[in-house]
Amino acid sequence: MEKAIFESAVTKEQKTAVGNYLKAIAQQKANRAEELRELARRSTGGKFLASNAQSRKYLKQAQALEKEAQRYQSVLGNF
């Protein structure tokens, strides 16, 4: 869907709107990645193995979100 929006932008106003949308999505993903990294650093007070597994899960999700944010930024750079 996003690809269709990107490709259908013809006028300057449409391109500006799509650019703003891409910036906002990239920022949201970067913010969420930082939140997940913060959660990974917190101690849950549980058993070490469970806490460590949860931290790894948060870090993995944060990395995935950062990759998505970078993808949006690269699309924005090519726009």
Describe, in plain words, how this protein is organized in 3D:
Residues 22-75 form a coiled coil. By secondary structure, the chain is mainly α. The chain contains 3 helices and no strands. Helix 2 (12-41) runs antiparallel to helix 3 (48-78). The chain is rod-shaped, with a radius of gyration of 17 Å. The model has no long low-confidence stretch (mean pLDDT 88).
Rg (C-alpha, Å): 17 Å
Quantity of strands, as a count: 0
Category by helix and strand content: mainly alpha
Q: What is the averaged pLDDT score? A: 88
* Number of helical segments with 4 or more residues: 3
How far apart the termini lie comes to 16 Å
| Main pleated sheet | none
SSE order, one letter for each helix or strand: HHH
How helix-rich are the residues, as a percent range?
over 70%
Net shape = rod-shaped
What ranges have pLDDT less than 50 throughout 5 or more consecutive residues?
A: none
Integer count of domains? 1
Strand content: under 5%
Fill in the keyword field for this structure:
single chain, 79 residues, mainly alpha, 3 helices, 0% strand, rod-shaped
Quick structural summary:
This protein is an all-alpha fold and 79 residues long. It is built from three helices and no strands.
Layout of helices and strands, plus pairs?
Blueprint (H helix, E strand, L loop, with lengths): L1 H7 L3 H30 L6 H31 L1
Helix pairs in contact: 2-3
